[in-house]
Amino acid sequence: MPQHGADHAGARIARVRKNRHLTQRELADLSHVSYSTLTKVEQGAIPASPSVMGALARTLSVPVTELTGQPYLEELRQDHLDGLINPIREALNVYDLGPDPDVAPRTVEELEEHAENLCALVRATNIKRVAAELPGLICEATTAAHVHPGARNWRVLASVYRTAYDVTTKLGFPDLCTVALDRMDWAAQRASDPLLGGMRQYLRALAYLRASDYRTGKRLVALGAAALQQAEPGRERDVVTGQLHLGAAVLAGRDKDRDTAEGHLGEAARIAAQTGPAEKVHWLSFGPTNVGVHRVSVLAELDLYPEAVHEAQQITPPDDWPVSRLAHHHAEIARAEMWTGRTDAAFRSLLRARKLAPQQTRYHPTVRETYAGLEAAKRRMPETFGNFGAWLGV
């Protein structure tokens, strides 16, 4: 049964393929995606996995977001989020104009507290509030850094730019998340902070993961690790280093390189055993739980879905684990459960993700592709399944 609506990922792939004057067989051969998989994806009979979506996007020379349909503008309008994007864009563009004469910045202590609060709100998935407060804080922190150009003010500004990256990524604006990362690098260099520099390369690597450019992502991880060698030894450096290994593991998994992925997971586990839970260190959610969650992600990226489901069953996140990370984890479990035929369990995982983080879940492409895959079996699903689809807007 084809998935609901005419504008699904498979239909977008078919449109671009036809615009490129390619047959299904030609696209399958060029992208190294099986012909059977491609035809089923285009029909809406099965969802496209992230690796398949990436391979097709690269072959068709389009951004992955063109195939996923991001940003989901109609839903953004319904949630009154669309009007919050342009102010963020404008705030990111004034970085080099010097102090704004109409802005009287607060003390660095107050700005630090506000920046930390926004980081916490992102982890709590209160995206709308963060998006509303972010432009003003960017402008204020920018003026403060120009008026008092000390390392502390530049670090605050880098942190605020990192939050801009988080928000624009979650809402599906990769162009803005790239700008935010460039601004973060600009501020981190002025702060002379190698930890921020290493973390920025990690976030860039994730952006390239989403764009399905795994080779560049791996190079960025290596650059991040080199930057961290300039940082003072200690727990903070260990945490960022461990998170780099986790990012590298997912990149290798998406690239179907199991040995490399396992090596990075092993190194991250070793570091996590030393640091213990460190979820609030640069708000990276690092620690033993995050290593286990990333192992599930890697197994799913390797298409080892039964193993991913089994591994997920061994994880019991602490009660205070970041909501954003936990909701993302449930979305990934749902995908693995769907591919193992556990449709009821997969839908329950989607509902858990929605309950934990409705704003984040609504704009998550994996959630939409998983829902598309479950729709083929919707006659066996509860009535609330259709309500979930209406909520997603698909």
Structure notes:
The protein is mostly helical. It folds into 4 domains: 1-69, 434 Repressor (Amino-terminal Domain) (Orthogonal Bundle); 73-192, no CATH class; 195-310, no CATH class; 322-394, no CATH class. Helix content is 72%, strand content 0%. The chain has 22 helices and no strands. It has helices spanning 9-19, 24-31, 35-43, 50-60, 64-68, 73-78, 85-92, 108-123, 127-147, 151-170, 174-191, 194-210, 214-228, 235-254, 258-275, 288-301, 305-313, 323-339, 343-356, 358-362, 365-375, 384-392. Helix 12 (194-210) packs antiparallel against helix 13 (214-228), helix 13 runs antiparallel to helix 14 and helix 18 packs parallel to helix 21. The longest helix is centred in the middle third of the chain and has 21 residues, at 127-147. Mean pLDDT is 93; it is low at 1-5.
List the helices and strands and how they pair.
Layout: H1 9-19, H2 24-31, H3 35-43, H4 50-60, H5 64-68, H6 73-78, H7 85-92, H8 108-123, H9 127-147, H10 151-170, H11 174-191, H12 194-210, H13 214-228, H14 235-254, H15 258-275, H16 288-301, H17 305-313, H18 323-339, H19 343-356, H20 358-362, H21 365-375, H22 384-392
Question: What tags apply to this protein structure?
Answer:
434 Repressor (Amino-terminal Domain), 22 helices, mainly alpha, 4 domains, 394 residues
Q: What value does the Rg take, in angstroms?
A: 21 Å
Could you tell me the mean pLDDT?
93
The profile of the biggest β sheet is: none
Give the helix tally. Answer: 22
Helix content: over 70%
List how many beta strands DSSP finds. Answer: 0
Calculate the terminal CA-CA distance, rounded to whole Å: 15 Å
Stretches with pLDDT under 50, minimum 5 residues = 1-5
Number of domains: 4
Structural class: mainly alpha
